[in-house]
Amino acid sequence: MSKKKIKLGILIQGPGGHMNSWKSDEVPADGSINLNHYIDVTQKAEQSGIDFVFIADGLHINEKSIPHFLNRFEPITLLSTLAAVTKHIGLVGTVSTTYSEPFNIARQFASLDSISGGRAGWNVVTTPLEGTASNFNKGNHPDHSLRYQMADEYLEVAKGLWDSWEDDAFVRNRKSGQFFEREKMHRLNHEGEFFKAQGPLNIERSKQGQPVIFQAGASKTGIAFAAKHGEAIFTNKATIESAQEYYRTLKEQAVENGRKRDDIAILPSLSPIIGATEAEAEERYNEIKNLISIEEALNYLGRYFDHFDFSQFPLDEAFPDIGDVGKNSFQSTTDEIKQMAKEENLTLREVALRVATPKGEFFGTYEQVAYKMMEWVDHDAADGFVIVMYVLGKQYDDFLNHVLPILEEKGYYNRSYEGDTLRENLGLPFIKNRYVKKASASI
Known about the structure:
This protein has about 450 residues and is α/β, with parallel strands linked by helices. It has helices at about 35-45, 75-85, 100-115, 145-160, 220-230, 240-255, 280-290, 295-305, 330-345, 350-355, 365-380, 395-410, 420-425, 435-440, and strands at about 5-10, 50-55, 90-95, 120-125, 190, 195, 210-215, 230-235, 265-270, 275, 365, 385. The chain folds into two domains: about 5-280 and about 360-440, Alpha-Beta Barrel (TIM Barrel); about 295-355, no CATH class. Helix content is about 40%, strand content about 10%. The longest helix is centred in the middle third of the chain and has 19 residues, at about 145-160.
């Protein structure tokens, strides 16, 4: 079996992915708004050859939200700053298609792409939390399927706007006084069910053509959307079997959409809990687990169900039957939680603590975790991973300093960047301007 290079990104959620990572003395307590912390994590990743940093985001909070969600940077602003202090690493940010306008977002990501020299990526989300509607003049929160219909048109508009200018449209000839070639400027003139955009976009295409489209579709509708538009897919599968099924389904649907299997990189989340020995890894897990109380775990669990209040139920009885709660929120995640509780006959306490601090597949020694990563890639469960460290402190350094060298030694990882753009480093194709294709076809 030929070896596949493992693609890697790091998700930066301030101090870490655990809801109470801010309590750890390994990170700044204000990590979610500490620019030096973001720069440090990003530059360490770049020195280790990580392909991209990933900034998540949300548009609705309340008193029960994850602490570092209450006070955090807006992604594009942060990534533009990180672009100025890095040279190679990709810069990926989350923006909602339900609560923004295509022209503005297309322009912002095109600007980030140009500022960074072709390193931008857009994590396209449709926004799961119903409470978000209260912050915008857009009426009620659209249901799950409608949000994806809107997102489909939204992306078609954004991609069209990114093709407003052919790659050599701006000649900037000082002698003749010609700044651009008029025939290489194109108006989109889109007027659809949800959006209007005439164009052209007032910024040129970047070195990689268009920003890389990231997506995290897990429901049936989300998978169909990812198969059509996604290029790097962030998933959250707990076992190699479920990851293989997702991998196979998405790649097959991509081909049905006229794409190649390699046009999509599938990147499950990876929350490693590691140590030189299993005992040390267990010690690290207990440190993380002890950061949270049962009340906080219930709040964390409730967020997936649109901030549902689980405290009304007995902790040590079976997970409650709550009907369709969560159906219009994180649909696939809530379905998986309910299924897990039913199949394993778990109590509410057990579900809350497990969801808040899962041990996961990638637990053990440096060698065990490295070999598990190789296994997933070798057996078509992943093309790489998005690293979600519970605490972005010592465990992060250990992963970079101990796990990556094993992957490198075995030929699964290369810390040297293979190209100048995010697309090149993820092995994704350059996106050609649609109007150039049409012109070539008519010759």
